[in-house]
Amino acid sequence: MGNPPNAPWPHQPGQGPPPYGPPPMPPGGPAPGMPGGFAPQPGPPPPGRKGGGGLVLALVGCGLVFVLIAVGVVVLALQGGDDDGGGGEVQLRVGKIAGGAEAAPQADGSLVMSRPGVTAPVVDIYEDFACPPCGAFDQKHDPMLKQMVVEGRAKVVFHPMLIFGESRQPAHDNSLRAAAALRCVGDGAHWLSYQDALYEHQPENENATGYTTDELLSLAEPLGLTGDDFTSCVKSQRYAASVKTVSQGYISSGISGTPSVRVNGRTLDPSDIESPEALRRAVEAAS
Predict the structure, then answer these.
(1) For the segment 7-20, what is each residue's pLDDT rounded down to a tens digit?
(2) Longest Cα pair distance anywhere in the chain, in angstroms?
(3) Which residue, 74, 147, 164, 239, has most beta carbons within 10 Å?
(4) Domain 96-285 indexed as CATH 3.40.30.10
């Protein structure tokens, strides 16, 4: 069974490494996170995830049954364009989402999704792509969260991170490759679409090898992410070290398991994310 969402990992010394516990601390203690920032530049809207309006999916994983009711929320559409060319840092650009919202990648690897001028409540989502409960959380809550953003009722921040320790293979390396590849996407709309693709093709469990370099490039191709710089960025894992540093910063701030959700800085209880309706109520209560 996986780590319950938002609950500290109930791991006791001597029981072996926890599947969703934090990676080992580096010498001298955890490293701080990196500052955020982006270079605004209007970008194209991305396509929506598969299974849009009216689709009901029963998701069984980690002992929990999740029911997704996607009710015609936000339709995201892509429009040409690749990320930057050049071999240095990826240039970050604000992407436009259908309905007037924007998706702004940050320099620390996170992404802010909001309507212009909406600054609260802030919903921070900490996720690991190799964590099966994170994939279930995304499928269950993502349409509702995008709807709240388009309605101007919340500002949502996605925080991809590495929660698996190096001894937890192949999950550690799967997660690291996926998070580092997402950092290679500069446009916010493409970022969201690539995140959807990563979850849709998530390894079936933490013991299965996935997110190989070839697969990461293959998933990006339909989104128009085929440029030489993107390809070399993914192949070299250009942002792997940064992913580790940022992840240690999140762990230092109190993130002990994934998925974790904070609203205005307060970590939600498991009951607050049992359903999209429960999460919506928790967000609205913080408004």
Answers:
(1) 332 222 233 333 34
(2) 52
(3) 164
(4) yes
